């Protein structure tokens, strides 16, 4: 394999000037796969910027956790996300981030999250009431509806069921930016494309939802301890600006529902493709729940259900890559990585690496039953280190409860032949088409 002066393998061949921009834009997942075949730290060029694909769990652990001070989220990511999210928890850095995380962390304490169990099962049951035997449903939309409702009722203490369609449409408008043709990546930033304009429409719609949320809870925040009240009180006491309040709420509204709804969509799809696993899941749920609705106490006995969700997030990680910028020169696997370089750490590749997973393309929840000796960061659907997902406990609890509640009454079947899903690479990996399935009453 060819070595560069900086040490380590050369990247994939690209074109003059545009580098790997077109290969990347055509199919980022396939592009990552090609890069990963070349080594564990592989350079590539997109849109005039230098990236490295980092695929060894030990390096990922250094970047996200043990040596996190040498890396930051960086301008690249801020530019990608801040048009929508502003400077909320996901996009801010340094002291501003630390202060926000400290303020919000208590609303994500284990006891607080566990107190949302009933809201979670209630919203799942509500969806079940809209399903009947043989009625085809778009599972991604159904899951999104449930997770938006749960988020609003738990963290925002209000029901925004009437906004679900607005949020879904806005997410589509914002997400479409990721599908803009590769050539737009080469345009100067100040040239607005039709995709930018569509995204702006989405942002405006989300802002409308947030304004309504704040309005509904005005004057009713004292004495409550959910996320919205915590932020409203901080705003009223002059600790955070109106802009920060807005940015935080948009961040939680978007980061807090889309990811979990994708995890569940992929779970249902993989279960339908693997009927043996599905049967084993139903058997566990019948055994533990009988005719009941899952409670906190049941979760400890639903270990196969937990393994199913864990394995689905390995197979189709909703966040398919985490990105950092080197804030100083560093060495990774003997290669010099210069300050300012952008490091892409793809769960998509690491979770399917045969060094850590036997038969990685098989959906096999049982692999999580035995303690296999694999590096910690061979599995990192929620990222890691100080910037690890604040909603991890919330998301895991929610996914298991929704799955158990609905699988108690329904078996979901595929429409069509199954096979690998076509995914779009934005901030999340989302299906290019609605995921149509048919519920059968059990
Ligand atoms: C299956 C569901 C979820 C997945 C796969 C997921 C994934 C992630 C990942 C990978 C990160 C780290 C990003 C980075 O380091 O650059 C992250 C951060 C974050 N997530 Fe999640 N997430 C999920 C659910 C949630 C939920 C339910 C919430 C809120 C209720 C949430 C809110 C956030 C926030 C605010 C951050 C930024 C944290 C910080 O930087 O301090 N996520 N998430």
Automatic annotation (TrEMBL):
SUPFAM superfamilies: Cytochrome P450. Gene3D superfamilies: Cytochrome P450. The keyword Aminoacyl-tRNA synthetase does not apply. Keywords: Heme, Iron, Metal-binding, Monooxygenase, Oxidoreductase. The keyword Nucleotidyltransferase does not apply. GO terms for molecular function: heme binding; iron ion binding; monooxygenase activity; oxidoreductase activity, acting on paired donors, with incorporation or reduction of molecular oxygen. InterPro entries: Cyt_P450, Cyt_P450_CS, Cyt_P450_E_grp-I, Cyt_P450_sf, Cytochrome_P450_Monoox. Belongs to the cytochrome P450 family. This is Cytochrome P450. It comes from Halorientalis regularis.
